[in-house]
Amino acid sequence: MNYRRFGRTGWNVSEIGYGMWGMAGWTGSEDRQSLESLQHAVDLGCNFFDTAWAYGDGHSETLLGKIIRANPMKTLYAATKIPPKNRRWPSQRAFSVDESYPPDYIEEYVHKSLENIGVSKLDLIQFHTWEDHWLDDDRLLKALEKLRTGNEVRAVGISINRWEPWNAIRAVKSGLLDAVQVIYNIFDQNPEDELFPTCREKNVAVIARVPFDEGTLTGTLTPESKWPKGDWRNTYFVAENLKSSVAHADALKPLLRDGMTMPEMALRFILNNPDVSTIIPGMRKRHHVETNLGASTRGSLPAELQAELRKHRWDRTPTSWSQ
Question: What mean pLDDT comes out for the span 296-300?
Fold first, then answer.
């Protein structure tokens, strides 16, 4: 495993981290398997774990706490997120601070996460949704500063709405953030335009989420793919999106060479960008852990392949199904 500096925190984090949403928000999750996979990741050198209170109403956080306590001699970084008070993902321009993150509510959920994970201090607390105009509310500015200077968290960040990397530039420039979490993958390259240079300037860490485009970039989806009732992917891969996503993924398959898989290519594309501090693929099974973490040892992609993949940028705008 290779490690990268996590912005101005000075932490050295595994460049492949662990996204824990699938352990509580998708069908097929099973605690024994989840804990085994998490421990295997630790054994292979992964030290950055991203969860959220909303992943199973704290259940994913409790799983992370068990792994931290099972590895007392290792430095494991716990990143979690405060859910919006109105439970609306993504946020919308019309939402106010009072609807989403009033100061007393922020404190309440910091304490909930501390209790769930079982630590005295959270490494990274993130706002699970974000609107840059919230910075117009002085109460939020004071709440952010209180988090950064208090004794309950080490670093503060935000998770940016899907396909809206511009909607965090002001927050990064404010100097109040230590990290941003953004969708970045072969298709979604637009964070490179403005967000990444701003993070570089302010020494803010970048967490790349959705490296497989919710599964599209694994190359396993077909126009007939279906998921069990209640699975979140049913609401994202509506017919319109599924058909287009599969077509874009199929266009990448001829680029595979020498036994490289689609997931490996997707992760190594991101690893080519030094602005990224860590990538957080979702992993529920042991073999997912092995293949995803293995991308770190194989390093960045050849320049010719990287150049070809850049041609597959797919600029999208939020719609009713792009939560």
Answer: 89
